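Fold this sequence, please.
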Amino acid sequence: MQKNLGQETVIAHCGRQPEKHHGAVSTPVYRASTILFPTLAELDAKDSAKLRYGRRGTPTTHSLEDAICALEEADAALIAPSGVMALSVVLMSFADQAAHFLVSDNSYGPTRKFCSQLLTRFGIETTYYDPAIGAGIESLIRPETRLIWMESPGSQTFEIQDVTAITEVARRKGVVTAIDNTWSGGYFCKPITQGVDISLQAGTKYVSGHSDIMLGTIACTSTIYERLRETYLRFGVCISPDDAFLALRGIRTLGVRMRQHEANALEVADWLENQEQVIRIMHPARANDPYHDLWKRHFTGSSGLFGFVIRETDRKALARMFDGFHLFGMGSSWGGFESLMVPSNPSVYRTATQWAPGGQTVRIHVGLEDPKDLINEIASGFGRLKN
């Protein structure tokens, strides 16, 4: 692909080679396990072949890898069947004997559980650090530290990390860095260009955009790729070509969707600020957020996911509020076209820092509906909360 193209042009054309697929605009779905070689010489040389066995990829999955590379401005990419599988591949790739990991205290629950429940069996020690540590992370690095894991913003509490400060220290110390970049969809943030070695996403969210596939993406620098790929191959990681096709379809509209998610979420957040039930909003793109200046340095926009805190209430009152919603669904995940809202308790995942916001934390994903309709529904919910 040409250099210096606008991002909208990149996502419209990345991972597409119509001339190789009989002129089809989108790469077709290739379902394959066995790949045949017409000559013995070609069979003998299969290790260097782009296509050699379905588990190692098909033209459909390779197209998605190319598209993720372009989206994340990375050197290489791997595709996993879920976000958790993607993070598992990354963590296992650096799980040397007696290794030490540094993991941000605001990280996604399954990331922490993988470290605390699985990696400890192999003698891997994890230290959880304050997301606001910045360059101070140098004091936590040991000779055996192999990986620094970031999540910015945190998917429940929305702290922004000083990624460039952390990566500068990590490079000087020879430590690999990885970041969960799901919140930006790879559209509003390019961690690889900020010095991060590995940027991964739960592609289930914004890359897909339609709440109908499971997907994980790993984008990385060329120096890290072979190590990741070796782990990926040894675990037999592969994805359905049908899911790859749907993810490629999602990427084509990523820009349009992300900008609308951003606008809708900011409108809802601005309204929430003036509601008597709301005591705090966690949305780093808003000027009064404590992480706003850091957000401006690392991001070009914001997505539909943010949080807020309502005054302390009991579970029965929460049920009255949430059970009456029609436009907001309650469920895991986010990043689809539809709006979601769930009460949450981030404190159960904290060990290095404390989460005590003085009320009930709520996570909201603002979808592509008319934000005025969403605001009216929340207002009705607040009414039920009081009665």
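The mean pLDDT is 95. Residues 89 and 172 are 25 Å apart (CA to CA).
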